[in-house]
UniProtKB/TrEMBL annotation:
GO cellular component, one term: cytoplasm
PANTHER family, per database record: HOMOGENTISATE 1,2-DIOXYGENASE (PTHR11056:SF0)
Name of this chain's protein: homogentisate 1,2-dioxygenase
Species whose genome carries this gene: Geranomyces variabilis
Coiled-coil region list: none
GO molecular function, one term: metal ion binding
Upper lineage: Eukaryota, Fungi, Fungi incertae sedis, Chytridiomycota, Chytridiomycota incertae sedis
Keywords: Dioxygenase, Iron, Metal-binding, Oxidoreductase, Phenylalanine catabolism, Tyrosine catabolism
Binding site for homogentisate: 356, 377
Length: 465
């Protein structure tokens, strides 16, 4: 398949050993490195794990391409003012700060001037650890309004999980094409080169980058063999190549939190055939089979885990990607919104569309919130009053909306950009977020086990009408 006829066909199955060829017979048969690769191609291995990783975890792909990736000019550092090299805090030259405060951001402002592509519109918001020791993660947002042209990007630092919020992403990768729209996600493994085009114009979204391991499907335990994200719904691109050597192509590499660029006279998307299990993929979040309580109580959000990046401690994630999808709420005698809690994990949340059930206002599509390790949070006063007094009939929650969470066992540091209250084009950090809990009243009455808050709240609700 050449560039003139983009191929958005997909191979199905999470983590499978996939194989695809854009020219019939391009894939060597029965071996990876024949003396002569069909059609005069070069063989190149892309390793996602150490050569000696256990078979069940081993990831690699073989790419059969027109020119090997090594044909390029030396790396040169290029400005990267929106990224950080270190999440360390507490020094005069620190790029980040730490705060246990509950934080909430208004929708991240799109660029006020043209010419900002996916790479240069990427802003690091928070993170922990560092890629040089393969430990930690970074959370970015991208705010872009221009296609990447004659260029490609890859991260040596980690695997990217990309969550578009506004605008589709037309992603050309070495492995083929992916079209990813809001309500879908894609994962681009470490090292895979890609270019992002914006068919819908100005675009915004969130990125979770993990510096070690890979995103995996969570264990299902007592749920059984089915449910949550099903493996067959993960889609991998089919091979597509461009045989072009008419331009100077720029490849930008994110390496230890900095950008470096190289140049080459041939198109980097020249892979005619590939096989392996280390490849980019996408997933439609609307295919998530939601499991929840059908009797009583609000269960923990781990039941909504789409993908997880495990740590070395069993059951503890470097980061989970969790969604809060449309679903029926049926629990009886239950406070249905999220309970008040203090979590040993850090919770970064974003909203794709609609409204979120724990907040009456202020948490908007394209914005975000962060509730850090052991920092208390929960429903705001208005939500508590409503959920404590409403009649508990079954209802469909957020039928057209979707919220998500990056939940991590690490403690996040915030970049200076993230802690700015104003940006050109709009507001960012909400200074008064904490006030949403200020209206929570004391209802305790040792002489009245049935409580009096319900009636008071009902009266207040009636008074507002
Ligand atoms: Fe929470």
């Amino acid at each position: 398949m050449t560039a003139d006829t983009k191929n958005y066909s997909y191979l199905s199955g999470f983590g499978n050993q996939h194989a695809s060829e854009a020219l019939q017979g391009a894939l060597p048969v029965g071996q990876n490195t024949p003396q002569k690769v069909p059609y005069g191609l070069y063989a190149e291995q892309l390793s996602g794990t150490a050569f000696t990783a256990p078979r069940a975890e081993n990831q690699r792909s073989w790419l059969y391409r027109i020119k090997p990736s090594v044909c390029h000019t030396p790396f040169q550092q290029t400005p990267s003012p929106n990224l950080v090299r270190s999440f360390a805090t507490g020094r005069a030259d620190s790029e980040c700060e730490s705060t246990p405060n509950q934080l909430r951001w208004s929708p991240f402002p799109l660029p006020t001037h043209g010419g900002v592509d996916f790479v240069h519109g990427m802003h690091t918001l928070a993170g922990a650890g560092q890629p040089s020791v393969r430990n930690g993660l970074a959370i970015h947002v991208y705010l872009a309004n221009q296609d990447m042209h004659a260029s490609a990007f890859y991260s040596s630092d980690g695997e990217f999980l990309i969550v578009p919020q506004q605008g589709r992403l037309d992603i050309q990768t070495e492995f083929g094409h992916l079209m990813v729209e809001p309500n879908e996600i894609c994962v681009i493994p470490r090292g895979v080169r890609y270019a992002v085009r914006l068919p819908d114009g100005p675009s915004r979204g969130y990125i979770l980058e993990v510096f070690d391991r890979h995103f995996e499907l969570p264990e299902l335990g007592p749920i059984g063999a089915n449910g949550l994200a099903n493996a067959r719904d993960f889609l991998y691109p089919t091979a597509a190549y461009e045989d072009k050597d008419d331009l100077e192509y720029t490849i930008i590499n994110k390496y230890q939190g900095q950008l470096f660029s190289i140049h080459q006279p041939h198109c980097p998307f020249d892979v005619v055939a590939w096989h392996g299990n280390f490849a980019p993929y996408k997933y439609d979040l609307r295919r998530f089979c939601t499991v929840n309580a059908v009797s009583f109580d609000h269960l923990d959000p781990s039941i909504f885990t789409v993908l997880t990046a495990r740590s070395s401690t069993p059951g503890v994630a470097i980061a989970d990607f969790v969604i809060f999808p449309p679903r029926w709420m049926v629990a009886e005698n239950t406070f249905r919104p999220p309970y008040y809690h203090r979590n040993c994990m850090s919770e970064f949340m974003g909203l794709i569309s609609g409204v979120y059930d724990a907040k009456a206002e202020g948490f908007l599509p394209g914005g975000a919130s962060l509730h850090s390790t052991m920092s208390a949070h929960g429903p705001d006063a208005a939500t508590f009053a409503k959920a404590s007094t409403e009649d508990l009939k079954p209802f469909k929650l957020r039928p057209d909306g979707l919220a998500f969470m990056f939940e991590t066992s690490l403690m996040l540091s915030l970049t200076k950009w993230a802690l700015q209250k104003d940006q050109p084009g709009g507001k960012m950090l909400q200074a008064n977020y904490y006030e949403c809990w200020g209206g929570l009243k004391k209802y305790f009455d040792p002489k009245n086990r049935d409580g009096r808050w319900g009636e008071e709240s009902k009266a207040e609700q009636a008074g507002k009408k």
